[in-house]
Design goal:
mainly alpha, 59% helix
């Protein structure tokens, strides 16, 4: 029979640093994989969406810039939808197209409204005094 070693008593150091045998080596580190971007990203679709949002906001505040940004969003959205069969982003591209169209229509409406006001009240700005200008505006209303 094999001789058993006595168990260490509390407070007494163990005679063997590893009383239950040899400690196994640590497991190897996991294999390193190259980082990959998540699938389904389409930068052109994201750009169409962002430009469309900004275009709608600026179509209300500053119509000429909103009109230009709306056209840019439309073009980017159409190009992104063509590309979306390969990489995702189809919904973002569609949203960019819709927001671009809304931006263009809204900018045209704002420009037409401002043009109509300028056409109606434009001749009142040529009056010499402010009182004459106000009388002209009151007469047009």
């Amino acid at each position: 029979m094999t001789e058993q070693q006595p168990l260490p008593q509390p407070g007494n150091p163990s005679p063997d640093p590893h009383p239950y045998g040899e400690v196994p080596p640590p497991p190897p580190p996991p294999a390193a994989h190259a980082w990959q971007a998540p699938p389904g990203r389409n930068g052109m679709a994201v750009a169409a969406l962002v430009v469309g949002i900004v275009g709608v906001v600026l179509a209300i505040c500053f119509a000429p810039v909103g009109l230009v940004l709306g056209v840019v969003a439309l073009v980017l959205g159409v190009l992104a939808r063509r590309k979306s069969t390969v990489s995702g982003g189809r919904g973002q591209a569609t949203s960019g197209i819709v927001l671009g169209a809304v931006s263009v229509v809204l900018a045209i409406v704002v420009l037409a409204f401002v043009g109509s006001i300028m056409n109606t009240f434009g001749d009142c700005t040529n009056k010499a005094t402010q009182a004459e200008q106000q009388a002209c505006i009151q007469g047009k209303m």
